[in-house]
Amino acid sequence: MRTVDIIEKKRDGGKLTQEEISFFIQGYTKGTIPDYQASALLMAILFQGMDDEETAELTDAMRLSGEQVDLSRIQGVKVDKHSTGGVGDKTSLVLGPLVASCGAKLAKMSGRGLGHTGGTLDKMESIPGMRIDLSEEEFIKQVNDIGIAIIGQTADIDPADKKLYALRDVTGTVESIPLIASSIMSKKLCSGANAILLDVKFGSGAFMKTLDKAKELATTMVKIGDHLHRDTRAILTDMDEPLGLAVGNALEVKEAIATLKGEGPKDLTELVIKAGGIMLEQAKLVKTHEEGETKIKEAIANGAGLSKLKQMVASQSGDVSYIDDPTKFPLAQHIVEIKANQDGYIQRIDSLGIGVSAMKLGAGRATKEDSIDMAAGIVLAKKVGDYVVKGETLALAHTNKDDYEAVLTDIFHAFVLGEEKQAERPIVYGYIK
């Protein structure tokens, strides 16, 4: 088998076989297929696409390129959740403890933030002492003991994706739905869960900018899961404005704690209730997701979710006193108000603009090597649909940097005010299974 024949076949619109896909992934991972040939095939896939079977076979070949996590020693159905990334997305820190408190087994491997999107691991590490590098034995024991563990991915998982992702980034082939879907799903399938819920976001702060594109990606990933015999479902959620009010690591952890106390923002609370209901159905703990939603609401009301978060933090060596008293989290040296310069309804909050501004304040990484200031970020005082008067606070910028003035202007311009009130937008736009 020759790589050039595979490239020409896809270039001309042909369907690749399982053997051809496996040959390419194995060869590129091992280094016997050079970057220039891999780039040519990626471009051919971008232009010609892949059908459902090809995309599933590509995903499976990538999954098999490295280590597989064996969760068979964990009792019960193992559930996992993946978000395609957004601004203020602290969902896992709320949703995970809630579903675990209802009896589900959540064994989750998460990533770090890059650019304007935050990473769950970074948020967790804002809690002093918190370990995200558990061994496989510790990971499995913790999930068996308390129902939940959230850790970092091991270096040996899905090496094919690491190489292909880096190549796509510099060859203009990022936008292909089959390549995006196989990248996400190959990592999730390596993690060993029986059931996966995908939170596919759309809007200015998301990778997919439109609902139609998010639906296409979600449908493709659900089909991959079905083809590879995993219970995979997806929800389509709004990221045209930040999720919740807090953007930034420690700030988001404090908001997650408030949400588990029943004091969180409406959109985040609604999202975790709907997602949690589906995950409990996937875990076979309820017959319908509506029944699951009722259980999630109860876990918020009776404090079970908050107790489970404290259990997880303690098990991973974190300082639980920060969960009991979130005022212990350090505040930034500068906390600056951004104020409205007119009366009006907030018609739009540019999620991407807020995310990039939070990164510039120190809350995120422009490159993988950048360090993060856990106290930095932005807390919104208003959301879309709220009415403000001139001089009223729109947001608070938190930073330890002294040269922050230009960022304040960017935050101000992220808020669009007008005379007409926008219709209330749902947080969840669709459910695919």
Descriptive overview:
This protein is α/β, with parallel strands linked by helices. Helix 2 runs parallel beside helix 4, helix 3 crosses helix 8 (159-171) and helix 16 packs antiparallel against helix 17. It has 17 helices and 13 strands. The chain is 46% helix and 16% strand. Strands 3-2-1-4-5-13 form a six-stranded mixed sheet, with helices on both faces. Strands 6-9-11-7 form a four-stranded antiparallel sheet. A three-stranded antiparallel sheet has the order 10-8-12. It folds into three domains: 3-63, Transferase, Pyrimidine Nucleoside Phosphorylase, Chain C (Transferase, Pyrimidine Nucleoside Phosphorylase, Chain A, domain 3); 78-324, Pyrimidine Nucleoside Phosphorylase, Chain A, domain 2, CATH 3.40.1030; 331-418, Aldehyde Oxidoreductase, domain 3 (Alpha-Beta Complex).
What features would you highlight for this structure?
Transferase, Pyrimidine Nucleoside Phosphorylase, Chain A, domain 3; four-stranded antiparallel sheet; 433 residues; Pyrimidine Nucleoside Phosphorylase, Chain A, domain 2; 3 domains; Aldehyde Oxidoreductase, domain 3; single chain
SSE blueprint:
Blueprint: H1 3-11, H2 18-30, H3 35-48, H4 52-63, E1 78-83, H5 91-101, E2 105-110, H6 120-124, H7 136-146, E3 148-152, H8 159-171, H9 177-190, E4 195-202, H10 211-227, E5 231-238, E6 246-247, H11 249-260, H12 266-282, H13 289-301, H14 304-315, H15 321-324, E7 334-339, E8 344-349, H16 351-363, E9 377-380, E10 387-388, E11 393-399, H17 405-414, E12 415-418, E13 428-432
Helix pairs in contact: 1-3, 2-4, 3-8, 4-9, 4-10, 5-11, 5-12, 5-14, 9-10, 12-13, 16-17
